[in-house]
From TrEMBL, chain A:
<dbReference type="InterPro" id="IPR011537">
    <property type="entry name" value="NADH-UbQ_OxRdtase_suF"/>
</dbReference>
<keyword id="KW-0285">Flavoprotein</keyword>
<dbReference type="GO" id="GO:0051287">
    <property type="term" value="F:NAD binding"/>
</dbReference>
<dbReference type="InterPro" id="IPR011538">
    <property type="entry name" value="Nuo51_FMN-bd"/>
</dbReference>
<feature type="domain" description="NADH-ubiquinone oxidoreductase 51kDa subunit iron-sulphur binding">
    <location>
        <begin position="340"/>
        <end position="385"/>
    </location>
</feature>
<comment type="function">
    <text>NDH-1 shuttles electrons from NADH, via FMN and iron-sulfur (Fe-S) centers, to quinones in the respiratory chain.</text>
</comment>
<dbReference type="Pfam" id="PF10589">
    <property type="entry name" value="NADH_4Fe-4S"/>
</dbReference>
<keyword id="KW-0520">NAD</keyword>
<dbReference type="InterPro" id="IPR019575">
    <property type="entry name" value="Nuop51_4Fe4S-bd"/>
</dbReference>
Automatic annotation (TrEMBL), chain B:
<keyword id="KW-0411">Iron-sulfur</keyword>
<dbReference type="InterPro" id="IPR042128">
    <property type="entry name" value="NuoE_dom"/>
</dbReference>
<comment type="similarity">
    <text>Belongs to the complex I 24 kDa subunit family.</text>
</comment>
<feature type="binding site">
    <location>
        <position position="90"/>
    </location>
    <ligand>
        <name>[2Fe-2S] cluster</name>
    </ligand>
</feature>
<protein>
    <submittedName>
        <fullName>NADH-quinone oxidoreductase subunit NuoE</fullName>
        <ecNumber>1.6.5.11</ecNumber>
    </submittedName>
</protein>
<keyword id="KW-0001">2Fe-2S</keyword>
<dbReference type="GO" id="GO:0051537">
    <property type="term" value="F:2 iron, 2 sulfur cluster binding"/>
</dbReference>
<dbReference type="GO" id="GO:0046872">
    <property type="term" value="F:metal ion binding"/>
</dbReference>
<feature type="binding site">
    <location>
        <position position="95"/>
    </location>
    <ligand>
        <name>[2Fe-2S] cluster</name>
    </ligand>
</feature>
Length: 446, 165
């Protein structure tokens, strides 16, 4: 049985309650950290663990903590990013509703490490029922002396606040999230200054993803080195993967990083394979923002090596033949999926979610949606395909935040790998616009 | 339609909640309470009229424009009157792979309305939204805080029957 760092107890009935969580070893890491470790020692364990930001960027969490400025007399903040909105990603949703105390315990340990006395969990507003679950968990922890003033007699005080968003993908970008938390529109800030220096209320702030923080309990109980011994190379630990699309068993799975993509896709322990009678056509491995790859690049890299579920292996081959682990939003397409339609769908998403601050993104995402709409609906021209590549190039790298890149990559990669499918929509507009029509020439894996 | 005069005040319970929310933030940072308070307001009136937004501005000691610019940015806030049940239907890629488009056609046909419209009896408003972070359980829609998942035409029918009672 593979190692489970986050979900070992997720199947236990009542694990969302304080008592059951506590009976199963919950809050022992918090006791250990607060009673026997200095904040610096906790930071050191996070660094040793090598755990990387699980929201998508993959930046080492301990290193991010190390950047936090500590001027005298200025409060510091920890903000948990629970604004999970990346299409294909639903693991934080699952984790928070199933084991809320794992996040609360991680938040207390991490706040202690950073010297924060008020920390926030910013949850996307649609998850109001999850907010209620978290608030209940916070009340239970407070009633048991694990939150509030003088936690476990240590003299350390912490207040945890759950903040709802209002329905905006952009608030998953950390500086937009901070703007939103200050009661403003979610427009990302120019950097520098980075949040570690000037974040929430212009004070030093760390923003970390739910899953990243939830790892802290295990890291403290077992040590950063033990965590780093799980996984492969610089992809340490485990990762929650949200699996969706044309597979037999969609859901959230915890995997040890380094598992082969083939095993994840086909083993009964995970996705259970492509649904019966169908073939793999394409994969988006890490949420809608990462490049889509065709079937022949899913299980093997272009060099013929096994493709693994790790930051390095998934991006092997760069944008020419690779993709990214991203947030772990694993979206599987079989031969019934129309790549043009899906690309149009994703473009509509980014156009809808662009905050409008930077012209290349505001205008470019709209152009891409419009051009893809006419290609999908049989009114496109061959020139449109090159136009899309051109617009994508002009957005990429030219915006304050990564939403521009996230909008450009799915379009650029879809055309790179499935160009003939786009061309077919131009050359065969009648066939291509029949309900459920899909180009049959694309290579599929048996 | 929700027929609560938009000039009426917050209920005493909600007013107490507003004060509790404001107290969560550091002194002078009460503007941080804006999103949670707008959610509370929408819970009471069903939608956010300019009168209601002005009330919120006053409660938080900020300018009305600061409330309008936020309310118009975030898609969860309704700026027009809505029906009793607002169906927020996910239209993003992973749900579409699971047949969300076909189920949505059925939903529109069954209600006799299109996206953005409200049924004549004022019971349902239909909204299309982007990814609800439930992709493995799609197709999905939500009504207030409740998620309805793994939708099929039959399931949609029984949900609507139940809510129409």
């Amino acid at each position: 049985m593979a190692i489970k760092i986050l979900t070992e107890h997720s199947h236990i009935p009542g694990i969302e309650t304080f008592d059951v969580y506590r009976k199963n070893g919950g809050y022992t890491a918090l006791e250990k950290a607060i009673k026997t470790m200095s904040p610096e020692e906790v930071v050191e364990e996070a660094k040793k663990s090598g755990v990387r930001g699980r929201g998508g960027a993959g930046f080492p969490m301990g290193m991010k903590w190390g950047f936090l400025a500590k001027p005298e007399g200025v409060p510091r903040y920890l903000v948990c990013n629970a604004d999970e909105s990346e299409p294909g990603t639903f693991k934080d949703h699952y984790l928070m509703k199933t084991i809320p105390h794992l996040l609360i315990e991680g938040m207390i340990i991490s706040s202690y490490a950073l010297g924060a006395n008020k920390s926030f969990i910013y949850v996307r507003g649609e998850l109001m029922y999850v907010i209620q679950i978290l608030e209940k968990a916070i009340a239970e922890a407070t009633a048991n002396g694990l939150l509030g003033n003088n936690i476990l007699g240590s003299g350390y005080d912490l207040e945890l606040v759950v903040q709802p968003g209002g329905g905006a993908y952009i608030c998953g970008e950390e500086t937009a999230l901070l703007e939103s938390l200050e009661g403003k529109r979610g427009n990302p800030r120019n950097k520098p200054p980075f949040p570690a220096v000037k974040g929430l209320y212009q004070s030093p702030t760390v923003v970390n993803n739910v899953e990243s923080i939830a790892n802290m309990a295990w890291i403290i109980n077992h040590g950063g080195e033990a965590y780093a011994s799980v996984g492969i190379g610089r992809s340490t630990g485990t990762k929650l993967i949200s699996a969706s699309g044309h597979i037999k068993k969609p859901g959230v799975y915890e995997i040890e990083l380094g598992l082969s993509v083939e095993e994840f896709m086909n083993s009964d322990e995970y996705c259970g394979g492509i649904r019966d009678g169908h073939h793999l056509k394409a994969l988006v491995a890490g949420g809608s923002s990462v490049p889509i790859i065709p079937a022949h690049l899913v299980y093997k890299t272009a060099n013929g090596e096994d493709r693994l579920m790790s930051y390095e292996s998934l991006s092997d081959g760069g944008f020419a033949t690779g993709t990214m682990l991203g947030s772990g939003g694993f979206i599987v397409f079989d031969e019934t999926a129309c790549i043009v339609r899906n690309t149009w769908n994703f473009s509509r998403f980014y156009h809808h979610e662009s905050c409008g601050q930077c012209s290349p993104c505001r205008e470019g995402t709209g152009w891409m949606e419009k051009v893809l709409h006419r290609l999908e609906h049989g009114h496109g021209s061959m020139h449109d395909i090159d136009l899309l590549v051109d617009v994508a190039k002009k957005i990429e790298g030219n915006t304050i935040c990564p939403l521009g890149d996230a909008a450009a990559w799915p379009v650029a990669s879809a055309i790179r790998h499935f160009r003939e499918e786009f061309e077919w929509h131009v050359s065969h507009p009648k066939e291509a616009t029949l309900p459920g029509a899909v180009y049959k020439g694309a290579a599929v894996l048996a | 339609m929700t027929e609560i005069p938009t000039t009426s005040a917050f209920t005493p319970e909600r007013l107490a909640k507003v004060k509790e929310i404001i107290a969560r933030y550091p002194e002078g940072r009460q503007k941080s309470a804006l999103l949670p308070v707008l959610h509370l307001a929408q819970e009471q009136w069903g939608w956010l009229s300019s009168e209601v937004m002005d009330q919120v501005a006053e409660l938080l000691s900020i300018e009305p424009i600061e409330v309008y610019e936020v309310a118009t940015f975030y898609t969860m806030f309704h700026l027009q009157p809505v029906g009793k049940h607002v169906i927020e239907y996910c239209r993003t890629g992973p749900c579409c792979l699971m047949g969300a488009e076909g189920v949505y056609d059925h939903l529109q046909a069954r209600l006799g309305i299109k996206t953005g419209q409200t049924t004549p009896d004022g019971l349902f408003t239909l909204k299309e939204v982007e990814c609800l972070a439930a992709c493995g359980w799609g197709p999905v829609f939500q009504i207030r805080e409740k998620y309805y998942m793994n939708l099929t035409n039959e399931k949609v029918d029984s949900i609507l029957d139940e809510l129409s009672k």
